[in-house]
Protein: Luciferase family oxidoreductase group 1
Amino acid sequence: MTYFLSLLDKSPIEQGKSASEALQASVRLAIRAEELGYHRFWVAEHHNMSNLASSAPETLIAYLLARTSKIRIGSGGVMLQHYSAYKVAETFNLLASLAPGRVDLGVGKAPGGFPLSTRALQAAFDPERKPDFAAQLSDINTYLAADPTYEGAQATPFPPHAPERFLLGASVESAVLAAEKGWELVFAGHLNGDPENLRKTFEAYERASSGKRPILALAAFAADSEEQARERVGNLRIVKVFLPNGQTVNVGSEEQAAEFARQAGVTEYRIEEKVPSVLHGTAAQIRKELDELHRRYGVKEFILDTPALAASERLSSIELLAKERLSLAA
Structure:
């Protein structure tokens, strides 16, 4: 079976440790991932979260690029609704100029935080003039094209190799949009693992992009034994919050659910607690599942989300998976 294996890290802050320690753990993970042969290492964007340290992926990406030499480094992803498309293109062109051929720009539609941080991030926007997500993708395309004849603002500096572009989504609509705008699709299976939705989204992207296949993002944790992996993953929880206006959001605890509702200005809400969908077991068991997904859907690359466990466990997991040679393409 031939496919690439890549990683997504959220810089989780362990109980009793600091954000600085969490970020240094992510750095060590990226360095080790390069040594093990992983294809990409992406970092997430979460705002005003007491348990996650990565709020500005572009800053962390710059540091990781300086600490590595071969592995591709990128965002998984920039929460585009908060930012100017021009500034995003400018930032990633600069990163790609610092490390040519190694920079990925992944973007998503979600806010990446609670209502107060969203309002703070968008305080300077005129809601009447704010472009929609599709228009922002088109604008980024224009800026990254580095066309010297373009008469608008130029997102300098122009790198020798433009950042690769990825749209993070989990719907047929995202698939069609990604194909229409010429972006690679990353199906967020770690957030929406419904098999039927996955099948429909893959088929829609393949049709709309003339045969291309999405990258598949999944949460995965490998341990020395199936029992150990099951025990650790069994302690993880997701709390889904349902607000009266129809909005839903996933948070990490009932306390976070109550805080989200407070910031949204509502007192009535409903929650559902569930165990997140995480591939877990021995590295051989996880490889078997990935091989099957590769066979069934033609997946050429998996991005594995490292669960919010201890740094030592995340490191051990990627080492066990690499030992199974999951990270190497034929």
Remarks:
- The mean pLDDT is 93.
- Residues 171 and 263 are 28 Å apart (CA to CA).
- Residues 19-36 form the longest helix (18 residues).
- The radius of gyration is 19 Å.
